[in-house]
Amino acid sequence: MKIIYLNSVDSTQTYLKSHLKDKTLTPPCAISxxxxxxxxxxxxxxxxxxxxxxxxxxxxxTSQMPSDLKLESASIYYAYxxxxxxxxxGSKVWLKWPxxxxxxKSKIGGMITHIVGDIxxxxxxxxxxxxxxxxxxxxxxxxxxDLLEKYFDYLEKKPLWKQVFSKYKLEFDLSRDFQTxxxxxxxxxxxxxxxxxxxxxxxxxxxxxxx
Length: 211
Description:
Blueprint lengths: L1 E8 L2 H10 L7 E8 L2 E2 L5 E2 L6 E8 L12 H15 L5 E3 L3 E4 L2 E11 L2 E8 L17 H13 L4 H11 L7 E3 L4 E3 L4 E2 L5 E3 L2 E3 L4
Parallel strand pairs: 1-2
Antiparallel strand pairs: 2-5, 3-4, 5-9, 6-7, 7-8, 8-9, 10-11, 12-13, 13-14
Helix pairs in contact: 2-3, 2-4
């Protein structure tokens, strides 16, 4: 994975998509910035870009994804692997369904995924060193370069979805104290059942990650 480090950018996601469009960058590649001025969060919300936190976007060809990974499962897959890497460094971070990073009851980051033609683009925001009001930061100290190197090493091994999901479903109960967005409104995860593709069922409605 080629990683391009920038001092500052409006959005790593916008930057990457723009360069993919004009073919000055090709997958697999990643953009990381020290400062992000107009970050994109879930449901097109902004993600506040405090200096020193992780602002990352990376892309791969969908044909290079694990053979059993469906596109609708991609957010959980790539987010959970990053969570596992952080755990190896000693963090108590966990993954709230489907792709938000939490320490205890507070959000510290998240991941969004998009399809651009035959390319999967993933965007990550993670509070490594500081957090805005209402959020927390990571509970360990880690160099971004070390984190990204280990994360992309894991991705290159292409663990199967079923291997990742078998671990994630053991953690899913932690999400039950929270809400998520269905296609119409916010819904409680308290009575949600988790399907094998990572979607959930609530009151006979099947809900996939909207990110």
